[in-house]
Amino acid sequence: MRAPRLCLALRRLTLCLALLGLVLSASASAGRTAKPGVITEIDSLTAARSRVVFEGSVSPGPSGSGNYNQGKAGLWLQKFGSRRLKLISPSTLCSDSATYALGAGDTVGCLDSWAMITQVGFDVNVLLGDGTVKNIVSLSFDGEDFDVPVTEGVPAIFGDGEFLGYLDVNDAGVVKLFRITPSGPAKYVADLAGLYSCNPTGCGSVVVGSGNIVIREPFDSELHVFTTAGKHIATFPANAAGTGGSVAIHGNRVVVLTDGGRLVVYTLHGKLVHSYRAHATRGQITTYYGYAAYMRAGGKSVHVLKLSSGKDREIAQVRSAGCASLSLQRPGLVVVCLDPNRPSIRYFPMKKIRAKLG
């Protein structure tokens, strides 16, 4: 009787050891899967809600390690605050200098405007949630050396994680709004009236949020507000700084960084709500639910200002002036450094911002 019992005990021990081996193997495998990579290059980036998507390269190991130079290039996704990087497309949708924007679900769009000696072209591509890549727009024009007549172009693509769209402008100055659907096709929405400086190759600064679009035409002091259905809401003077990036929108508030170094808040209809002195002269700003973030003059200090009180605090210091890409979303603030030597994405949770500003 002892022999069968001994055999049974040995079988149980063997089974336990086998199960333990499977658990340890799975844990190790999971650890390898979740191990964060090292960002070695960021060419273009966009953020909306909890998603950050960038075109660039990621290495499996840190600088100096044997696999540092074995990085993968493509389109990468990182959730807010996570260290994990996910390759969502092994090939880039557009060129290194393209503009990216996010739509609903996992949709990613990009605009590639290119020019050669005798050619000018525009391409709009979209990556769908199932990994399919679709070309939405493809325009090209031929001409003489540095003299190419462009009769139609796509000067802007924009998205807020829900609405993804672009502008199409012809040589007569007619501005058409298109929406890119989650399934890929682009649908014509409306002609946008009252825009006179947009042309096939440029339409200034365009931002979208909460069902509304704000357009600041090139070198224009006025802002034009439309719904994402193409309805004109208002046009009003704002004296925004620089040539782009100085306007942001969320909810029913438009936030502007002016030429005079002030951060000004308007309603969608152009009524002045607040005006505060800011530690910046120009550059990108971003806003979300009562806060606005900007880079202080000099480019090495990130500030957040509370719109209801004007309270302004430094949230972080950054290495170099290359850290100038900001996105304030529901989870918090994203600060992107495009420094070719040390590119990085940093996250600051909203609870840290509220702790400093109330």
Structure description:
This protein has 358 residues and is mainly beta. Helix content is 11%, strand content 48%. The strands form seven sheets. The chain has a four-stranded antiparallel β-sheet, with no helix packed on it. Strands 5-6-7-8 form a four-stranded antiparallel β-sheet, with no helix packed on it. Strand 10 and strand 11 (175-180) form a beta hairpin. The longest helix is centred in the first third of the chain and has 33 residues, at 2-34.
What is the string of SSEs from the N terminus onward? Answer: HEEEEEEEEEEEEEEEEEEEEEEEEEEEH
> In DSSP terms, counting alpha (H) and pi (I) runs of 4 or more, how many helices?
2
Broad structural category: mainly beta
Low-confidence stretches: 1-35
Write a brief caption for the model.
This protein is mainly beta.
Main attributes of the structure:
globular; disordered N terminus; 4-stranded antiparallel β-sheet; 2 helices; 358 residues; mainly beta
Topology:
Blueprint: H1 2-34, E1 38-48, E2 51-59, E3 72-79, E4 86-89, E5 99-102, E6 108-115, E7 119-127, E8 133-142, E9 152-159, E10 164-170, E11 175-180, E12 186-191, E13 205-209, E14 212-216, E15 222-227, E16 232-237, E17 247-250, E18 253-257, E19 262-267, E20 272-277, E21 285-288, E22 291-295, E23 301-306, E24 312-317, E25 325-329, E26 332-337, E27 344-349, H2 350-357
Antiparallel strand pairs: 1-2, 2-3, 3-4, 5-6, 6-7, 7-8, 9-10, 10-11, 11-12, 13-14, 14-15, 15-16, 17-18, 18-19, 19-20, 21-22, 22-23, 23-24, 25-26, 26-27
